[in-house]
Amino acid sequence: MKQLFKGEGFDRLVLAGGGVPRDVLSLFLEAMSAHDGEAVGKDEVRVLSKSNLERRIEELKKDSHADEQDLLIAGIYMLRSFCLSKKTNIFLVPEKMMQQQEEWKSLFNRLLDYRIIHQAGSALTHKSSAGNYQAFAIDIGCYAHFRKMENRFTEIDLSRSEAKDQMRSAPILTEQELGLLSSSVPQNAEQLLVQQPEEVE
User: Could you report the per-residue pLDDT of 60-94, keeping only the tens digit for each?
Assistant: First the structure.
């Protein structure tokens, strides 16, 4: 294992693959090919996760009907914007909203199918708000422009024992906030998703 990975390379690869063995293996083979078989580190995974997100978006567009493509692209843009503004890869959604609002439930389920977001937990309680919540993780490709995340972005590692407790302090994405995010999606949302922000050292 040490000959194949360096530093946090393996952990980052699993995170980038959303825990899906097929995606993890595919990214690993791509990383090895791109770097002539050298050990894979977190920077190599970070770069690959950008192209991986682009592929997932293309798959989503290919498989979805024309009339729903804009909605799905807007959904990705909204969730990425929310996570970047809150500086975290995890967000909570009220269970009640998921049960009662079919529009938002359908959006989350479709983005889960294409591994743009990943299920991180259910029936969670929040440390400062009443009710039960579902937890989701945004794909690592959505914040791959951060070369270093210290003091810029909080990444909760779902494989760690303290992850569940950390998620109980994650920001809550409410129906009202989704409405505000929806109204501010630009016409060129897809282009902005693919371009991504400038890399931050």
Answer: 988 888 778 999 999 999 999 999 999 999 999 99
pTM of the model: 0.85
Q: How far apart are alpha carbons 121 and 133 in whole angstroms? A: 8
CA-CA distance, 18 to 96, in Å (whole number)? 26
* β-sheet bridge partners, residue 132: 125
Q: Which residues pair with 117 in a beta bridge?
A: 138
Q: Which residues pair with 125 in a beta bridge?
A: 132
157-191 pLDDT, tens digit each: 887 889 899 999 999 999 999 999 999 999 999 88
3-state secondary structure of 169: coil
Rounded to whole angstroms, the maximal C-alpha distance in the chain is 52
d(CA 15, CA 12): 5
As a whole number of angstroms, the distance between CA 52 and CA 12 comes to 13
Question: Position of tokens 């569940």?
Answer: 164
Residue 100 burial by CB count (10 A; 0-12/13-18/19+): exposed, middle or buried? exposed
Domain boundaries, the chain: 9-195
Question: C-alpha angle 136/141/143, rounded to 5°?
Answer: 80
Q: What is the DSSP string of 56-80?
A: HHHHHHHHS-HHHHHHHHHHHHHHH
Phi, psi of 178 (to 5 degrees): -60, -40
